[in-house]
């Protein structure tokens, strides 16, 4: 279905929005979608990122003449590991205030960018308060973009109450009372084991105290901007709009012209004709985002599980998917499944999820992937890795009831038999399939007809005032 572009007339003034995401895949991608939506609604956009990230982003379509990508140094030395997310983020937080102020001043004094003075800054919620203070000092309107789930926003805003109630420690968020935490009347209670600062995955540089203290800072940052834009639609949690007085739901953010944007890897397009050759609703899509890592043993169990299921599968396997070592498949596995499945390094995910041959999506439950699956009406098999993914899993399985949870055994291993059992159960559950299609319809209505789409139009109108 085609959707007509929305734009201002040639003689109508338009806002010029500067977008500033954290330079990580899970943040850059939704910011790029946000930028394309702003252009579609008549705004001009400058997208600010690091030099190393800019080189990885898929090229912006030429017809987007009102969107520019500008890069600045990330502060790391040439010999530093630019793939170390923790070091990259810390360096970026340190250097970005100076770069940001200089960029705004130059563009407003000299209009070096060529598309007019910057009138509004939209900044990633996990960046410090400095960008908002710079925007205020320079007379710009300002907003925060919150790219996670409504329950995550509720949790961050409820941290002071959880401390006051003695449920968590004020220093590092350690659980003092093991009880479920009800963040929304519309969604399941959060297990205290799933607090996002207590789910590090196997990230060796994850420090619970640092993460918790930073979320306390985010709690205060959220109360500063003119607006808080959120990547969800109201029906996912009707109570979320009451969390803040200036909250605006703008999700789902659709793919630009049907293709993913802001990816650091190119999707293997050979999987699309392969999908064309499969029966409708027959393929298991398996992908775990840009950061999840498996042990060699768990990787083999997943491979054996896909083989045991005996159904067509499309499996995205990053070169760094196994923690610390190169990819090594079970002996003979690739030969045995060559007529059953297709393995790629990275998939064009939104095109894959939109394909009629896809039956379900085995996912890490990152919010971007969760929203993309909801948009396409695809049931999910939930295998979270770290952070907010465990809460997203609870919403998918027990709130919206559009997926099933894959459970590890007592040795924290997800066995091939558990994988087969849950796939078989999901594919035979007509209730889950029906729920997924209902959410798809709601997502479409919000993206193109009312709800979030109207919110977005109203937001752009406020930028013009």
From TrEMBL:
Reaction equation(s) it catalyzes: an anthocyanidin + UDP-alpha-D-glucose + H(+) = an anthocyanidin 3-O-beta-D-glucoside + UDP
Example of a GO MF term: quercetin 3-O-glucosyltransferase activity
Keywords: Glycosyltransferase, Transferase
Pathway membership, UniProt: Pigment biosynthesis; anthocyanin biosynthesis
Organism from which the protein derives: Populus alba (White poplar)
Keyword Iron-sulfur: no
Family: Belongs to the UDP-glycosyltransferase family.
Biological process, per Gene Ontology: anthocyanin-containing compound biosynthetic process
Enzyme Commission no: 2.4.1.-
UniProt-recorded name of the protein: Glycosyltransferase
Family matches, as InterPro entries: UDP_glucos_trans, UDP_glycos_trans_CS
PANTHER family xref list: GLUCOSYL/GLUCURONOSYL TRANSFERASES, UDP-GLYCOSYLTRANSFERASE 83A1-LIKE
Domain of life: Eukaryota
